[in-house]
Amino acid sequence: MISSQREPTRHGDRFFPLARYTLSFSKDFPLLPLHWHEEAELTLIQSGSCVYHIDLCEYPVREGDIVLLPPAVLHSAGSFPKYRMQSESFVFHLNFLGIQSADICSMKYLLPFSSRDLRFPYVIPSDHAANPKLREIICRMSDLYLQQQDGYELLLKSLFFEIFSLLLPYRLTDAKDADGSFSKSQSDKLKSVLDYIEMHYPEPLSVRDLAAICCFSEYHFMRFFKLHVGMTCTEYINTLRLEKAWQMLNKDRTPVLETALSCGFHNLSYFYRLFRKKYHMTPKEVLRQ
């Protein structure tokens, strides 16, 4: 995979590649955009409910559910209109657990998990037999991470291994996951399109060219994209261009006209209108701040 929806954030650092995050959906932040990262992800839904889209499949989750994602899985999440959702996540690179070591833990568990030869359910619901113990472990991990007393790194590492050992009896077989190959194929097609958009967003982009990447008709492609990304192709491209423009204005202090042209907007009034709708301020106001 190239860069497309790969999350640019480094989670932790080279020597401690792990970070904890909290997420709260609200009216102003109802969506976690489609993305992927090299790290695995472990999430506890603390309250409320939402819908995860993982490898293009839909997974409703609610309070007490746990989400476990292997590396490089395309995923997003969105809240229900009437419900807020709060969650706590640990995003961790498998290097933290020693995937590069030539030992039995790496060869038998970590490498297969990374390549998805060893598969667990993406969602472990609150009524799952392993869920209570997993929630207990995640709460302990949270305390360790926040307090950061001597040796907390060792304890965190051991708890991740405990999670894997708890889930082993519930690994997925081909019979339980018969549609996995189809889902992965569709996911790879979408990743290819997102990669292409990321690399060429300053240029004119047509539905015909993007559909050709998937070997779809334009009609099929537009339905496919809207279904799995949650917005039309044009909306997605404009959103990406606006995010790039925000970075240029806010971080690089690039003049407005240069920013618009560099991000693929060749109509300045159209750029202003979309920018203000998304950020509730004009590009010039960003520069002034």
From TrEMBL:
Transmembrane segments: none annotated. The keyword Transferase does not apply. Keywords: DNA-binding, Transcription, Transcription regulation. InterPro entries: AraC-bd, Homeodomain-like_sf, HTH-like, HTH_AraC, RmlC-like_jellyroll. The keyword DNA-binding applies. Residues 191-289 form the HTH araC/xylS-type domain. It comes from the Bacteria. This is AraC family transcriptional regulator. It comes from Sellimonas caecigallum.
